[in-house]
Design goal:
Catalytic activity: S-methyl-5'-thioinosine + phosphate = 5-(methylsulfanyl)-alpha-D-ribose 1-phosphate + hypoxanthine
Helix content: 25-40%
Largest sheet: 11 strands, mixed
Keywords: Glycosyltransferase, Purine salvage, Transferase
Bound molecules: the ligand CSC[C@H]1O[C@H](OP(=O)(O)O)[C@H](O)[C@@H]1O, hypoxanthine
Number of helices: 6
Subunit structure: Homotrimer.
Number of strands: 11
Organism: Pseudomarimonas salicorniae
CATH topology: Rossmann fold
Distance between the termini: 23 Å
Protein name: Probable S-methyl-5'-thioinosine phosphorylase
Radius of gyration: 17 Å
CATH architecture: 3-Layer(aba) Sandwich
CATH superfamily: Nucleoside phosphorylase domain
């Protein structure tokens, strides 16, 4: 198996990777079932890169139904050892305004009932993965360097709140997340990050802010409700910067 230099997991609004040359479909069965989609493996800046659409290529899988174990197991089996997760989020604190890109360094997990460990596999040893720093320090640093090399502004640090979804949050829920110290909110950051750690994958997250989380818009109670048009429009606008950023990452 030829190694993969980087696997990228795309989220809402990101179902293909711009700039990936000669992509070929690659799919493997896993002991945990099927991944959301086949991976697309190609080259980018001369390096081997795989791309996987977390929700499926037609966004048919809701966040609480994603088979996170199969997605990560398949990428690992295909030869990936580094994973960059792209996560669309709502911004809670002022640094994370719509269209900002950021590299968080912490997570709080509010999800429930998801398959969140590989230890449940028959015969698997119990593992207590070390997770004080949930993201890989080297991959985060490389991403931040890529941002400065490519002239792409990245918000450094911050805490990602992983909520259950698929509904959006109430204002009271977001106030609680803010009090807990969260900066952005999404529905897919966990158990993905913890499963990656169990597989010893170097995993980091790039957030794309799509909207102000409920009640965080400076327009206050006059703010318009969050719509998918707003979310997808902001993801499309912000993701115009991704090809340059990822190319700079692959050139390191
Ligand atoms: C209002 S869109 C919510 C949807 O978008 C995010 O997906 P992803 O993290 O895969 O980019 C969020 O987690 C929800 O799944
Ligand atoms: O406001 C949000 N909340 C949760 N997940 C999200 N993904 C994009 N925006 C949001």
């Amino acid at each position: 198996m030829q190694p993969i230099d980087l696997a990228i997991i795309g989220g809402t609004g990101l179902y293909r990777l711009a700039g990936l040359e000669s992509p070929r479909e690659a799919s493997l069965p896993t002991p945990f079932g099927h991944a959301s989609a086949p991976a697309r493996v190609g080259t980018l800046a001369g390096r081997r890169v795989a791309f996987l659409a977390r929700h499926g290529e037609g966004h048919s899988v809701a966040p609480h139904r994603i088979n996170y174990r199969a997605n990560l197991h398949m990428l690992h089996a295909l030869g990936a050892r580094r994973v960059l997760a792209l996560n669309t989020v709502g911004g809670i604190t002022p640094r994370f305004a719509p269209r900002a890109l950021g590299v968080p360094d912490q997570i709080i997990d509010y999800t429930w009932g998801r398959e969140s460990t590989f230890c449940d596999a028959p015969g698997a040893a119990v593992q207590h993965a070390e997770f004080a720093e949930p993201y890989d320090a080297d991959l985060r640093a490389a991403l931040l360097r890529a941002g400065s090399d490519a002239g792409v502004e990245l918000v450094e640090g911050g805490c990602y709140a992983a909520t259950q979804g698929p509904r959006l949050e109430t204002r009271a829920e977001i106030s609680r997340l803010r009090r807990d110290g969260c900066d952005v909110v999404g529905m897919t950051g966990m158990p993905e990050a913890a499963l990656a750690r169990e597989l010893d994958l170097a995993y980091a997250c790039l957030v794309i802010v799509a909207n102000w989380a409920a009640g965080c818009d400076p327009a206050g109670r006059d703010a318009a409700p969050i719509t998918m048009d707003e979310v997808l429009g902001n993801v499309e606008a912000a993701s115009g910067l991704l090809p340059a950023l990822i190319e700079a990452l692959m050139q390191q």
